[in-house]
Design the sequence.
């Protein structure tokens, strides 16, 4: 088998673009509110209309994609993402924008599930660590650079360019995928099971996301969060959920998913606390805060390729555990800073945590995807993305709660302690071996067919 690195590049670019869209719109909400003459609450749906279908459709999309070809699904989702982005940029009123963003979120859900599947089928097992590190590194980098890119576009071109800037990347990825991807099956329309899964798991996850995003501790939203587990429980007990949990149990992947969720929650909580504390409590300027927080993605970007190479040589699990331990160490070192923070003191600690996240991202993804049965790679790809998405959503919410309970004096320390504990939890979860599937995903030199 010949490695198709161009498809790995496509996966990396689309991961960057899809994650960029998770955050880039947030900085444009005030401009959207003024430009479309709507309230701030209505403008917030420009972001929520994208995030809700992404979270709601990940698991149903995974089961659906296991029964059809990767090529038609990738081409359709990429083209749809670009088309809905253009429609969002042209929106003359808020309802148009919300519908376009909903369609873009639906396409993004397909892309998120397909990225690890595309990578694992594009290269030999001996190169999976390096290959999986590309989307595993570029995706989070897209999320972290979103606010900076969005700010530049708002200052010089206006809010509509927040939606247009991603279209050239999509068109390039579409052309490369059209040329490089082999025919591997036909398009298959979603069935009634897809609709039922969307109703239960999508409804439950969407309720949880809404409660965490809009709740702020208010009773109606707390009740919504308490109601969210009911449809998820119905799905787990039904014909849609049992095969998913069965695959994860057979492949021994529950602990690895817990590690993915814990690292994502720790990172998101840290990012929220550090940015808020530097600006609000320490009086650091927005520019200095942005440059300080940039130390994390810088470290991650530098360590990502190295993590992939080390994993291909020494195995996925040792490198993933080492990276998680470095991330935990960087976050733990933030706790003793006390009340007198300086950007350089924070930056080198964030750089250490970023190095760890870069080392662990690709190997962890390769560990999980390599253990998936060949006929269920899309299902496992979707469960990993759900774990990561929940971590990104839960982290800031838990940090906010910890800050409020500790009070204004110790709030930042409480939030950072929670972030560090989450990262520490990921270390034993990755180190403890689960019960693997018959084909262990450790690197070998044996070729496999696509």
Sequence:
């Amino acid at each position: 088998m010949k490695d198709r690195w161009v498809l790995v590049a496509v996966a990396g670019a689309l991961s960057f673009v899809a994650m960029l869209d998770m955050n880039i719109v947030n900085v444009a909400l005030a401009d959207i509110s003024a430009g479309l003459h709507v309230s701030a609450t209505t403008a917030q749906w420009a972001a929520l209309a994208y995030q809700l279908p992404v979270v709601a459709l990940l698991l149903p999309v995974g089961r659906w994609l296991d029964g059809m070809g990767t090529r038609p699904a990738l081409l359709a989702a990429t083209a749809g993402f670009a088309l809905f982005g253009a429609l969002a940029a042209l929106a003359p009123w808020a309802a148009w924008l919300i519908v376009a963003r909903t369609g873009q979120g639906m396409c993004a859900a397909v892309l998120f599930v397909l990225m690890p599947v595309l990578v694992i089928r594009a290269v030999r097992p001996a190169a999976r660590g390096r290959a999986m590190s590309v989307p595993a590194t570029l995706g989070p980098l897209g999320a972290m650079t979103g606010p900076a890119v969005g700010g530049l576009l708002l200052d010089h071109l206006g809010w509509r360019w927040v939606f247009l800037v991603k279209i050239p990347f999509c068109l390039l990825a579409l052309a490369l995928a059209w040329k490089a991807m082999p025919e591997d099956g036909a398009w298959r329309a979603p069935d009634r099971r897809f609709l039922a899964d969307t109703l239960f798991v999508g409804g439950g996850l969407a309720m949880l996301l809404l409660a965490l995003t809009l709740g702020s501790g208010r009773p109606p939203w707390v009740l919504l969060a308490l109601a969210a587990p009911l449809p998820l429980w119905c799905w787990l007990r039904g014909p849609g959920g049992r095969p998913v949990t069965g695959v994860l149990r057979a492949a021994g992947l529950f602990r690895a998913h817990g590690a993915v969720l814990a690292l994502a929650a720790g990172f998101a909580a840290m990012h929220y606390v550090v940015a808020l504390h530097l600006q609000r409590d320490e009086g650091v300027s927005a520019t200095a805060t942005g440059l300080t927080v940039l130390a994390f993605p810088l470290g991650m970007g530098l360590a990502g390729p190295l993590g992939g190479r080390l994993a291909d040589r020494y195995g996925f699990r040792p490198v993933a555990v080492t990276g998680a331990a470095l991330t935990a160490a960087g976050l733990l070192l933030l706790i003793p800073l006390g009340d007198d923070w300086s950007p350089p003191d924070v930056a080198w600690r964030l750089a250490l945590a970023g190095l760890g996240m870069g080392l662990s991202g690709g190997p962890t993804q390769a560990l999980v995807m390599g253990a998936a049965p060949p006929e269920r790679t899309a299902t496992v790809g979707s469960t990993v993305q759900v774990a990561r998405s929940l971590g990104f959503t839960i982290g800031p919410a838990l940090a906010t709660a910890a800050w409020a309970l500790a009070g204004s004096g110790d709030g930042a320390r409480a939030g950072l302690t929670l972030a560090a504990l989450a990262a520490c939890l990921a270390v034993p979860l990755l180190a403890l071996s689960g019960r693997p599937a018959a084909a262990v995903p450790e690197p070998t030199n044996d070729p496999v067919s696509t």
